[in-house]
Structures are given as structure tokens and as C-alpha cells.
Amino acid sequence: MMETLFHAYTPLLTWIGLGFLVSRFIPDSFLKLLGYGLYWVGIPLQLFVLARHTNLSNGGLIPGIAIVILLLSLVLALLIWWGRQWLISLKEQPKQESLDLSLNASSSGFNSLVRASLGSFILATILGNTGFVGLTLTQVLTSPENTDWAVLFSVTNNVVGTYGIAILIASYFGKSQTQNSWWTQLRDLATVPSLWAFFIGLNTQFVKLPAVVESGLDQAVWVVIAFALLLVGLRLGTIKGWKSLEIASIASVLKVFIVPALVGLGATYLGVTGEHRLVLVLMSGTPTGLSVLILAEVYDLDRNLLASSIALTFVGLFFALPLWLAWFG
Question: What pLDDT does residue 189 have?
């Protein structure tokens, strides 16, 4: 197991650590440029290459599982938040109705800060970094023939999670007055370059490219992963403030430990074992995605809570990996 963990930790520690160390010397303009480059070129290229080798025999199964895991995380986040608020109400007996357990915006007593924190707590729990960290871990820890599960899971997580459920949650709980109509969401979804690249890759599987081109594309995937992890380290280095550490730690434990454990046990109960089970556990237990910071800016959510959750889930991942390999590997 130590050798396996070494292979898993090496790219994470190397590139994330490098980004974190040099973050104070890198201007924010470079981070934005790198982010745009990955969004428009890097990640689409990665998904294009992976899609060309993706087996769609389980095309309906994996997206369904990914959606179920998203909904499971959402329900658990709400239950834990309600339970915490109930305990606080018993201890402090608040006079304000802001600790009412109702989610009805017109009748609840949630003030804007509490609503923003709840929305941020949910996002920190349900949105994982499946594109950067998840695909990296599955490519290192599992066989190439299982990569298709990870790719389909990641694409579903981005489509349904980031561009669907997450935007609805952010617009509902956020303090911003930004209007997010259905046609705006549809437009944003239709213009995501990664989705186009993925579908193009699927539909060009029959096209045989020269060996040197295929080899170059395969190597380019690892270059994209390196830059993506570097960006994660750079962003972690810019996090300031730990004011929401307590609630962020709860979200992090839920994201990195509880949900993957339930997924692994559920998969075992349903007869899914071996590397297929490990892929589901790894993808469901990835650290909180950087996309939550974008949603926090657009919809005026709790930035401290989300930034703290990102940092804590990355730390938690290093402790969780040995457990997942031992129990579900």
C-alpha cells in the first residue's frame, strides 16, 4: 500500500505544494490567465483524449450514480445543518427566528448571513474537485480500463452539479440580487467547452490518428493535470482568514470521510467491488471544488467558509486515501 500511496501523493504534493509555495510571488493576473487557459484549452483537451478511450457500456449507470451521490450529499448537509441549529437553539435559546429550521424563504427567520452560510455549507459538501484531483487519483490508483467510469462521473458532476444544482442553490441562498433565469443556465451549459470536447471525443473514437499524435495527446493529459494541480496550490496560497473554521470542518468531514464511506458501503451492498468501487469512492470524496469560489463571488455567499472548506478537504484527503485503499481498494 505504501508504494500505491506514494504514487498517489507524489503529483498532489509536488504540484499543489509548488503552487502554494510560490503563490505569494505570483500576480493574480497569472492565476486568472492560467484558469482561463485550463477552462478553454487544458480541461477540454484532457476530456477529449479521455473520451476517445471511454467505454459507454455503462453510460447510463455512472451518471445515475453520480446524481444519486450529489443528492445524498445534499440531504446529509441539510440534516447536519438542521441538527446543529437545533443544538444551538437548545443551548442559547435564541430570540431571533433566524434559527428556524424551515427553508421557506418567505416565512423563515434566516437573516442574509445565515442563509449565505447555509448555501455555502451545502456547496462545500456536494461539489467536488472531480476534474482536477479526481481524474488524477483514478488515473494513478486504478487501471486504464476503469478511467471511463471516472470520466463519466466527472462530466456528470460538472453538468448536473456545477451548472445545475449548485447554481440553483447559490441563487436561492445567496445575498446577491443576481437573477439566474432558466435560459441563462441553458446558455451557460451550452457554451461549456469541456462538454463539447467530451462529445467530440466520443464521436471520433473510430478515427485512427497517427501513433505520434496519439502519444502526444496522452502526454498532454499529464501536462494539463500538472498545471491544474499547480493552480489549486496557487489558489490555496491566496486564502485569507479562517473565521468559519468550525462549520467548515464539519462540511469537510462530511465531504471527505462520511459521504465516501457511505458510497463504498452502498456499492459493496449492491455487489460493486474492486477498482470500480474504488473509483466511486475516490470521485465522491474529492476535495471541495474551486468552482465554489466563483459562485461565492457571483452570488455573495460566505467566502470564508468555502475557502476554509477547500483547504481542510485537501488536508483531509491525505488522511482519507489510506482508509479508502485499505477498505475499498
Answer: 64
Q: What is the pTM of this model?
A: 0.80
Which H, E and C letters describe the chain, residue by residue?
CHHHHHHHHHHHHHHHHHHHHHHHHCCHHHHHHHHHHHHHHHHHHHHHHHHHCCCHHHCCHHHHHHHHHHHHHHHHHHHHHHHHHHHHHHHHCCCCHHHCCCCCCCCCCCCHHHHHHHHHHHHHHHCECHHHHHHHHHHHHCCHHHHHHHHHHHHHHHHHHHHHHHHHHHHHHCCCCCCCCHHHHHHHHHCCHHHHHHHHHHHCCCCCCCHHHHHHHHHHHHHHHHHHHHHHHHHHHCCCCCCCHHHHHHHHHHHHHHHHHHHHHHHHHCCCCHHHHHHHHHHHCCCECCHHHHHHHHHCCCHHHHHHHHHHHHHHHHHHHHHHHHHHC
Q: What is the pLDDT of residue 279?
A: 94
Mean pLDDT computed over 257-285 = 94
Mean pLDDT of the chain: 83
Q: Which residues pair with 288 in a beta bridge?
A: 128
Judged on CB neighbours under 10 Å (0-12, 13-18, 19+), 23 is: middle
Q: What is the pLDDT of residues 191-220, one digit of tens each?
A: 778 778 888 988 998 888 899 999 999 899
pLDDT tens digits along 34-55: 888 887 888 888 888 878 877 7
49-76 pLDDT, tens digit per residue, is: 878 877 776 566 888 999 999 999 999 9
| Burial tier of 240 (Cβ tally within 10 Å: 0-12, 13-18, 19+) | exposed
Q: How far apart (Å, rounded) are the C-alpha atoms in residues 230 and 170?
A: 27
Distances (CA, A) of 24 to 229, 238, 290, 305: 17, 8, 18, 22
In this structure, which amino acid lies at residue 297? E
Block residue for cell numbers 501513433: 211
Residue tagged 451492498 (cell numbers): 269
